[in-house]
Design a protein that fits this description.
By secondary structure, this protein is of the alpha/beta class. The protein has 17 helices and 22 strands. The protein has a five-stranded parallel beta sheet, with helices on one face.
Length: 529
């Protein structure tokens, strides 16, 4: 007689595979590689969790290769980046954000010291012109060259680097570090034309006709002015001009008392450079000290060096005589871009010189008639493409995000889009993906450990750097720890070549694997049946 096979009893020496316990569940876990918050915050898209994992394993060269996939300036960025990655770090809510910039600087410095070089780039026939040898132009040149393009880089000055060379003091960015990372880019075989000045739209048009694509990274070099303080080059100076002179070794003689107007990072660079030149320096800013746009550590360092910060102040008038300048000032409340003068708050300051550091704008007159200009910037779409086919733009000439790493990131993204455009591929416009929240990290597996000190200083020793890398939560990066495999009560987690997979026939959706994951690499998704 034929009888239907019965499922095994509770106690059996056979297999229980016939019991499909997966039919009980309402949710199924899934392995998901989500971006870490630090990666989402990085203007260059740096895969921090990935290179941290390589550093933790002692693969410092591999960590450097991962870093430079997105940013060819790790030693530079480790010194001057505004650190949005650290502000976003999930560990900040636990025992202190990871010292990402310090570790990036350590790896970048080690690469320079040991002479690490990029893999040899392929050689193609398509030609791309880049106008502007600052961080954005150099980033684009690097990314295009490693993809096989013949790159010609046009720079109006007599040296590459742009703001990195002229606008950042040596004490923050030593020139041997900057030159080392620029030279490594040029070794890829980039044709550099120094002293190349384009003064008319016709010049740019000829460039667009000669090359297969063009990237404009013109920077922002036109200093903003105050009507009450027209620069005379003697007692009233532009901050960019002052820093350029200091960086070239020709520090101007300004007298004892110097007033710096502005509250951003450039103003702090100017103020600290003037203080180091022996001047008594006051910084006057519309913003109160707590709201100054400069980074907090820059303000602290400026004050430590003897710079006096005077926030909530506006210069209303200025007069000159043989002794110097008299600045008539008023107290203000600055909020939402509006300035409210506080009645009866006027006072006077005297200075031998005033340096204006209130921002700069791009010089775009030569492009009028060739490209669309909006609000003083080159108009670009999400790809960085301008109104003329084959011409892309980025950096300070196309964005108000005036940070070095933003310029580097825009150069990288433009290079990717130029490549896709030349290959006839659709634009790469990924939407913003949700990042790993701090609540997804099981901190039981991450013992508390103090962040290394020293601010932006690189981790001095290999052991110190390795210990800091070990603090990384590896958000969204599976570390193959086997927790999911070990803790699954149904043995529904299977090891496979690429990591793990869920045996859906047996997973009851209890979520234990999700809770025990130390990196937030597993999510529980509701199943609708």
């Amino acid at each position: 007689m034929n009888t239907r096979a019965l499922p095994p009893t509770t106690w059996t020496t056979g297999t229980t595979e016939a019991i499909k316990t997966g039919t009980w569940r309402a949710a199924l876990p899934a392995y998901l590689k989500r971006p870490a918050p630090c990666q989402a915050a990085c203007p260059a898209g740096g895969e921090v969790a990935r290179w941290m994992e390589q550093a933790r394993a002692g693969d410092w060269y591999g960590a450097w290769l991962t870093l430079v996939e997105n940013n060819p300036f790790p030693a530079v960025a480790g010194r001057v980046c505004h650190q949005p990655c650290e502000s976003a770090c999930n560990r900040a809510q636990y025992d202190g954000a990871l010292a990402i910039c310090s570790l990036e600087r350590h790896i970048g410095d080690r690469a320079l010291a040991e002479g690490w070089r990029y893999p040899e780039a392929p050689v193609g026939t398509a030609r791309v012109a880049i106008v502007g040898g600052g961080p954005s132009g150099l980033s684009a040149a690097y990314q295009l060259r490693r993809r096989g393009y013949a790159v010609t880089l046009f720079e109006a000055g007599n040296a590459l680097g742009g703001l990195l060379r002229d606008g950042i003091p040596h004490y923050r960015l030593p020139r041997e570090v900057l030159d080392g990372e620029i030279d490594r880019i040029l070794e890829q075989g980039i044709d550099v034309r120094l002293g190349a000045v384009f003064t008319t739209a016709a010049c740019f048009a000829r460039l667009a006709e000669t090359f297969d694509a063009v990237y404009l990274a013109l920077g922002a070099r036109a200093p903003r002015r105050l009507a009450v303080l027209p620069p005379d080059g003697v007692r009233i100076l532009d901050g960019a001009d002052y820093l350029a002179q200091v960086n070239a070794g020709h520090t101007p003689a300004l007298g004892r008392y110097v007033a710096v107007i502005g509250g951003g990072s450039a103003a702090m660079d100017v103020a600290r450079s003037a203080r180091r030149a022996g001047h008594d320096v006051r910084v006057l800013s519309l913003e109160c000290e707590a709201d100054m746009p400069a980074q907090r550590e820059e303000l602290i360092e400026a004050k430590t060096e003897g710079v006096l910060l005077v926030g909530g102040v506006m210069v209303s008038a200025a007069t000159q005589d043989d002794e110097g300048l008299r600045l008539d000032c008023v107290r203000v409340r600055f909020h939402d871009g509006k300035t409210d003068v506080i009645p009866g708050s006027g006072f006077t300051l005297e200075a031998h010189a005033v340096i204006l550091a209130i921002g700069q704008d791009p010089r775009l007159a030569p492009l009028e008639g060739m490209l669309e200009i909006e609000a003083g910037l080159i108009a670009v779409d999400e790809r960085g493409a301008t109104s003329r086919a084959g011409v892309f733009a980025g950096g300070d000439a196309a964005s108000l995000q005036r940070f070095v790493t933003h310029a580097i990131g825009m150069g990288k993204r433009a290079a990717v889009e130029i490549h896709r455009w030349l290959e006839g591929e659709p634009p790469a416009l990924p939407g913003a993906r949700p990042t790993v929240p701090a609540s997804a990290i099981n901190t039981f597996y991450h013992p508390r450990a103090a962040r290394i000190g020293g601010g932006r200083q690189a981790a001095e020793h290999l052991e110190q750097a390795a210990a800091e890398a070990a603090r990384c939560f590896s958000c969204g990066q599976c570390t193959y720890c086997d927790n999911c495999f070990d803790y699954c009560p149904d043995m529904a987690v299977r090891r496979v070549a690429a990591g793990y997979e869920i045996a859906a026939d047996y997973c009851k959706g209890c979520g234990l694997c999700v809770r025990e994951c130390p990196t937030g690499s597993i999510v529980l998704r509701e199943e609708l049946r």
